[in-house]
Each structure stands twice: as C-alpha cells, then as structure tokens.
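Good day; I would like, with your permission, to put a structural problem before you. What I wish to show you is a protein chain and, alongside it, a tokenised description of its three-dimensional fold. Thank you for your consideration; the sequence and its tokens are set out here:
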Amino acid sequence: MNKRGFIFTFISVILVSVIMLAFLIQYSSRTRVNIERINTDVETMNSFVKNLNNDYIPRAIEVSGNQAILSLLDYMDENDKYVGKTSEGEPEEGEPWNIEHVIINAMLDGEYKNGFGEGEEGPELALMEIDDVSYNLSSTLNEINLLANFTGINLNYEDVQKQKIEVFQDSPWHVNISIEMSYTIKNKDSSISWNYENIKIKTAIPISNFKDPLYFINADSEVIINRTTYELPSEINEHVADTNYAQCGKSPNFLNRTQGNFEDMENSGLSGIESLVDFQSPLYSVIDFQYLNTINPSPRTNIGGSGYLIDSTHDECYNI
C-alpha cells in the first residue's frame, strides 16, 4: 500500500469512528433521557397511587358521606321524623328501612330513599347541592380525576353506582364507610399503566358536631353530640350541664338514633352512646333515650349522690 492510500484509509477510519461515536453519544443521550422520563413517570404515578388510596379517595368518600349525613339530619328535622318512620312514629309502608342504604343513596343520588335500582326515587336532599356544588360521590371523586389530569395521569374507574359500598359503626364516635374500587391509571402516552382490582378503601366520619335526632324529634331541642371530657362519676354535674355524651354499650349508637331504634341494642355493640337529661327526680332515669321515650326501668342508681338517677344496668358506663 502506498503512502497516499494509507493516509486515505486512516482518515476514513477516523471519520467513521467519529460518526459512530457521535451516533453512540446521541443514542446514549436519548436513552438516558427516556430512562429518566420513564423513572420520573413511574415515581410520579407511584406517589399518586399512594396518595390516591390513603388520602384522595378516603377524603372524597368522607366529604360525600359527611354531607349525606348532614342532609339526612336536616331532612329529618324539617319533617320531624326518624329514618323509615312517619311523623307519628309508625314504620313507613313497604320493606323495613335500612339506614345504611339510606346514607348510600344520599351519597349516590342525593335522595331520601331506601331501595336501590332503577325506578327507585325519593325526595331530594337539599344539602347535597349547595351553590351549584354537588356533594354526591361521583362529583367528589371527579375532583380527583381533575387533579390526575393536571398531573399528567389518566385515571379511570368503574361507575360508582356499581361499586360495593358499606356503612357501619365499629366505634362510638365515628361512622365508617368503605368502598371497593377497581381503577386503572396510565401516563400520557399509555406506556406505563397499572390496574387495581377491588381495592377496599375505608374512611371514618366523626359524629362530633352532628345533631342528635333523639333531641330534635322527641324534645324539639338542638343538642350537638360532644364526647365527654369529664371524669365520671366525680364530675357528673359538669357532664350533665354540658349535655356531653359517654360511651355505653347498653345504649343506641348514632345510626340507631337516626332510625329511632331505642329498644334493640344488639347492633350497637360497644358503639353505643348516651347523654343525661338535666332533671333530678327520684322517680325517673335521666338517660336520654329512656327519659325522652318515657322508659323508666327499675332499679335505678343515684350517681354519686348527685340526684341524677340512671338505669342500674348502666352503672359501669359511669364507673360506678
């Protein structure tokens, strides 16, 4: 090979090497950018899912459920009747009413009704929509959808009307609502997607600051449920004066109170609550649901010599 040919070959090899190196650098740079973008998308979606299950959906359920209960209490107060009963205290016609169904219907449709399915209609609950803001579950969940879109995430979930929703009490001071949801989330170009099937999400709604239907229906007075902060029985006078509530498994829980169910306490379990009416007499138990329903059990206990008498089977609720 002559000198000129050698130089030409050498230059060609160098040029090819430079081109290949430039290509590899560009390819490597693109790959790194893609990997970084994918990692960013994965981290963003992972963080969103954690917040979705632990914060966003529970909060959406709580907002809708809290407003549903407020709406029901407002409807009951306006119509002077318990859930599933007439204003005379008689059971409504048809199937026995279920407070869990009533709360779910309020959350889904904003109506006061007992049954599910097409053709079921009931009076609209005024407080489920205020100033064109809807508090039904579809609307509160849609706020999460807007947040997802703003974050660059596509969120799709099954129609809430088809979800399994439960309402129950397992503690005296909260109403629990759980929902089983199936949903899919994707990034903008759908290159990353996660599917979740039947995720059970639960929230607890405090009953503090709800009106007690026992008082506004039976006594035409407004009493707000507040958990007692007093030592019992030593501070019984302050407890009664402030109409505070104590836990008592022998009393109706909040859901029972909305139905005017003051006889069957089996469903209350340990979630029952009671207050005491400020009335001193040797003849009457002043436990709220007993006094206001003229239920006068015997024997009765005088709490610490205060003059307030209670059903003796409730002694343990006052540390007697």
In short: Residues 213-318 form one domain.
